[in-house]
Amino acid sequence: MVKCSICKRREAFYVRRYSGERLCRKCFSESIENKVRAVISKYQMFNFNDRIAVAVSGGKDSLNLLHILSKIEKEYPQASLCAITVDEGIGDYRAESIRIASENCEMLGIEHIIVSFKEIYGYTLDEIVKKTRDKGLTPCAYCGVLRRRALNIAAEEASADKIATAHTLDDEIQTFLLNLLHGDTVKAIYSRPKFEREIPDLIPRVKPFCKVLERESALYAYANHIKFQDEPCPYACEAFRNDIRIYLNRLEERHPGVKYTLFRSIERIRRLAAIRSERSPLRPCKICGEPTTDVICQACRILSELKLIRY
Ligand code: SF4
Ligand code: ZN
Ligand code: ZN
Hints:
Layout: E1 14-16, E2 21-23, H1 25-42, E3 51-55, H2 60-73, E4 80-87, H3 91-108, E5 111-116, H4 117-121, H5 125-131, H6 139-157, E6 162-164, H7 169-181, H8 185-190, E7 194-195, E8 205-206, H9 214-223, H10 239-254, H11 258-276, E9 283-284, E10 291-292, H12 298-305
Parallel strand pairs: 3-4, 3-6, 4-5, 6-8
Antiparallel strand pairs: 1-2, 7-8, 9-10
Helix pairs in contact: 1-9, 2-3, 2-9, 6-12, 7-10, 7-11
């Protein structure tokens, strides 16, 4: 039996190649929880009495985050948690993930708030996809911006002080590279683990999972018997992101630890950019107040194309 390098007692079930550690289930789970605690404290993500809205899709990352934050929250009696799931209206796919998210919330005793595109915008994503077939944009392009806004609306109604999303380290570095490869350097540099309240009246967003590898997130769910939906969305079509994911996974396989090195480099670049330009190029959208580099944000543009608002 290969023993765990931390407790030296239990059997190891995972070899963490970037550190050389062999970990048992318990020590592995604690190491992930400690990573989340360290990120929360490094970026000063929460106040002791915050009401935190966790964006829960029903996938492994968001449910892991909910389980871990619910553990941490118990140490702060004045803090409170709620979970928000946005029902985009994607056939049976979303119904299944909502059911799984609700079961997890019930088990943890956390309030579960569900908001839908239908009630906010008057259309499901399925209907929007039909309506916009000839516009040349992918379903994800509509879904991403509309979901972001729906989340803000729900968090506002829930009187949340922070919105926590479960972006992993893989998501963060993929998005950075994707923005660079699209030539969008501003977006690459100004997206951070903690989005400060640079814009009044906007609930700050935090990413406590930004130092957890996607692979280890899957393992955490497995080690802790967390039920999640692992079916991919039927509209998932981000081919460019997928290429970057495959490339980064291949690099990590050959050079363990390279993803963390890239993350640290991105942080340094962002710090340097922040020193050079004191003012963020982001400003509030004229219609909804969301941060944007333009006068009108992307969500409002999409809504006006769908003839749901006018400007
Ligand atoms: Fe929305 Fe695209 Fe994600 Fe499906 S894959 S939930 S369409 S962003
Ligand atoms: Zn151990
Ligand atoms: Zn807007």
